[in-house]
Amino acid sequence: MHENSASIGKKANIYTKRDFYQSCPADGLSIFKMLDKVMLQVEYHCFVDLKLNRIDPLYKELCLIIAEVLVMSYDSSVKINGSFIPAYIVQEVYLQLSNDHVRFVFGNLHNVSHRIYNKKAYIRTSLYNAVFEIESHFVNDMAVSD
Prior knowledge:
Strand order of the largest sheet: 1-2
Helix content: 55-70%
Number of helices: 6
Low-confidence stretches: 1-21
Mean pLDDT: 83
Largest sheet: 2 strands, antiparallel
Shape: globular
């Protein structure tokens, strides 16, 4: 007696979501305890501007937005690129963020020439997209410099 493939796929999908959520670093952490974890994840100390001898406050804002998403509940959703995506998917992507991704978003934010009306939503989307775009960005930079 074999289960049909649709029900097996559905069970696997449910298991994957539950398994990810249980392994997610939130575990009931407050946003500020999660902020500490995020700062370690993205190597926050490396953002020091040696000329100014300080870290630009925008870096902390980026980390705080990452932390906020990582403490969201499993059944929440996050608006990314104008669409609502389950929080656990966005959390999975945000767990891949590194120092380079945050620097990439920081640099892009400084190069924006238009007014950003919903800064938090814009940053959430930028962070999410950074995981997918960073490699092509560096490849394009290398192609332009050749």
